């Protein structure tokens, strides 16, 4: 899995998935609607904010529930305090309203349907502390359990801190239809799809057809990359797919990296040594020995072709879920460098040229780390799939 890429083919704006507000009949001053306050009681003081995704055209009302007090959209980011609630019957419908009041603006006070309220969003400073205390590039369960407004408010920050790309492939109702145009890739693709679906606890990738699909899996000749995703096509290198010896060159373990670095150092020393010298002959012999050891180590650690290509397709499907690369060998989304020169460079938390977990071997099988899974879940919350 040495060469895996993502091509961002266009600049996009990402608005996220906004939950639709339930159909609610707000009391109005219409004479035909009879409004009655059924019950009223005090409540322990609670803090709320207006859920702007639901209350775009809604109002708070005065005590008679007929006159408007203020438009809820004007209370963006305002913290309100609620101390009383009442049940209001408008026609045949009953709704629970809270009396809310801003501590900084006395004009922002009135009765609001409780469905337009939400607990105050986490402060940016609190979010930054939470990210700093958590595992690198791995969103915590707390971050993944916030209201929709939280992801809208912190979209750019979350995208940067967790190496997200944004929406790449078209999804409808959190599903993408995948059509495998090359039969040689069908088994690999089905496995990759099923692993992602199981990890995310829902059917995200489904089988598409030649006429109805969101992503086409096929081959394309290349020696630059093993897999590449442009949002509409997931390409696998036909050049490497046909090469029966290719698996003998893809393994990436601490032993292999150490031998490779030694070989490179000896090769440099050989170039610098005087011509026709005993020193140069010694470096040449040492280089041959290291090369043989390197080849043997790669063959010993070589993955099966099935496991390898399933892993490559899983990596590329991760891009469709909005994930960019990471510097962790144990992630399916690992890349050797944050800017390899052939795919879009990572515009994330930081750049890298070496792995962050050098004592580990590269994941070259159809499996996922907790970081892969949690970042994918964050992608859904951000509206990328």
TrEMBL record:
GO biological process, one term: proteolysis
Domain Peptidase M10 metallopeptidase intervals: 180-336
Organism, as annotated: Secundilactobacillus mixtipabuli
SUPFAM superfamilies (UniProt xref): Metalloproteases ('zincins'), catalytic domain
Alphabetical list of InterPro entries matching this protein: MetalloPept_cat_dom_sf, Pept_M10_metallopeptidase
Ranges of compositional bias, category Basic and acidic residues: 354-363
Gene Ontology terms: cellular component: extracellular matrix
Domain of life assignment: Bacteria
Alphabetized UniProt keyword annotations: Hydrolase, Metal-binding, Protease, Signal, Zinc
Chain intervals for the UniProt region annotation (Disordered): 349-368
Pfam families: Peptidase_M10
Name used for this protein in its record: Peptidase M10 metallopeptidase domain-containing protein
Signal sequence segment: 1-19
GO molecular function list: metalloendopeptidase activity; zinc ion binding
């Amino acid at each position: 899995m040495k060469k895996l890429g993502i091509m961002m083919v266009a600049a996009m704006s990402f608005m996220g998935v906004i939950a639709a507000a339930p159909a609610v009949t707000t009391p109005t001053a219409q004479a035909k609607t009879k409004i009655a306050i059924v019950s009223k009681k005090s409540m322990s003081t609670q803090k709320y904010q207006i859920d702007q995704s639901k209350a775009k055209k809604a109002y708070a009302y005065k005590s008679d529930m007929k006159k408007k007090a203020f438009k809820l959209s004007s209370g963006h980011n305002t913290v309100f305090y609620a101390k009383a609630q009442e049940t209001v019957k408008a026609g045949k419908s009953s709704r629970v309203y809270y009396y809310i009041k801003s501590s900084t603006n006395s004009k922002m006070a009135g009765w609001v349907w409780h469905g337009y309220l939400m607990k105050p969003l986490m402060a940016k400073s609190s979010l930054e502390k939470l990210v700093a205390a958590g595992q690198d590039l791995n969103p915590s369960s707390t971050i993944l359990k916030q209201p929709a407004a939280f992801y809208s408010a912190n979209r750019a920050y979350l995208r940067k801190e967790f190496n997200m790309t944004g929406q790449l492939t078209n999804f409808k109702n959190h599903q993408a239809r995948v059509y495998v145009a090359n039969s040689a890739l069908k088994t690999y693709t089905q496995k990759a799809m099923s692993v992602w679906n199981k990890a995310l606890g829902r059917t995200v990738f489904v089988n598409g057809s030649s006429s109805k699909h969101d992503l086409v899996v096929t081959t394309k000749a290349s020696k630059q990359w093993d897999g590449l995703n442009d949002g509409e096509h997931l390409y696998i290198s036909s050049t490497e797919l046909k090469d029966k010896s290719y698996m003998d060159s893809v393994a990436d373990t601490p032993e292999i990296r150490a031998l490779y670095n030694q070989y490179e150092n000896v090769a440099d020393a050989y170039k610098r040594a005087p011509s026709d010298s005993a020193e140069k002959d010694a470096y040449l012999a040492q280089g041959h020995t290291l090369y043989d050891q390197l080849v043997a180590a790669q063959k010993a650690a070589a993955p099966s072709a099935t496991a390898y290509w399933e892993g490559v397709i899983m990596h590329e499907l991760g891009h469709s879920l909005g994930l960019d690369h990471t510097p962790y060998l144990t992630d399916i989304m690992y890349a050797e460098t944050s800017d390899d020169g052939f795919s879009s460079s990572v515009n994330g938390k930081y750049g890298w040229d070496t792995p962050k977990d050098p004592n580990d071997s590269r994941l070259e099988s159809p499996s996922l780390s907790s970081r892969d899974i949690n970042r994918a879940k964050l992608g859904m919350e951000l509206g990328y799939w």
